[in-house]
Amino acid sequence: MPDTTVKRCDKVKVDKVTVFEGQVVRVVVDVLFPQIGKSKFLSPTEHAMSNKDKIEASETRITKAVFPNTTNHYATLFGGTALQWMDEAAFITATRFCRQKMVTVCSDRIDFKHPIPAGTFVELVGRVVKVGNTSLQVRVTVYLEQMYDEYREKAIEGLFTFVAIDDNMQPVPVRR
Ligand SMILES: CC(C)(COP(=O)(O)OP(=O)(O)OC[C@H]1O[C@@H](n2cnc3c(N)ncnc32)[C@H](O)[C@@H]1OP(=O)(O)O)[C@@H](O)C(=O)NCCC(=O)NCCS
User: Fold this and answer.
1) Ligand 1 atom 29: the closest Cα is on which residue?
2) pLDDT for 26-83, tens place per residue?
């Protein structure tokens, strides 16, 4: 029985020896055939995640405190600062998705829904929403969070498009 298998194997781990219908039976629990042994080390392709997994893995969350040096004369978060934070969150998300050099090519429709007062936290959440040939789009949502209670609401949302580039700053396909 297992002997024929043993001859074709690199390594056999025997769990126990028992008697079955008068015959000594070895229960083999771990058989490494040469080709199976090699395939235990996955190639980069085998490791490659699906786009869905990559979208999950690249989701980026950054929390900032809205201190007075980030506000305008209304004591709310300055729009330009919010845009800088959002572009940064989007850039990290895009780069994590494909691990390539990326540049911002466009920002679409930024909705400032609620003012963000000084003395609060904001959480920026970046997520890839579209993957093109050389470009991809990231949605960034900014949540306003009170420091001393659990209140939280969506305050800003915007879309950012990035292009993957080579060393000559020319567009190249986004790795999937
Ligand atoms: C990004 C850049 C390399 C693109 O070069 P380009 O010659 O315009 O490239 P293409 O026309 O071939 O477009 C490349 C991709 O970008 C997309 N794209 C280009 N302009 C766009 C725009 N205004 N809005 C949305 N997508 C745009 C195209 O649809 C294409 O996507 P796809 O390949 O997924 O279909 C070039 O415009 C550039 O260097 N811009 C400056 C970037 C920069 O300095 N950003 C700020 C600092 S990070």
Assistant:
1) 135
2) 444 444 433 444 434 444 454 567 888 999 999 999 999 999 999 999 999 999 999 9
**What's the distance, CA 125 to chain centroid?**
12
Cβ–ligand 1 distance for 105 under 6 Å, the answer: yes
Domain positions in the chain are 2-39, 48-164
CATH of domain 48-164: 3.10.129.10
SS3 141: strand
Q: Six-digit token pair at 136?
A: 């991809």
> Which of 13-17, 66-70, 79-83, 143-147 is the least confident region?
13-17
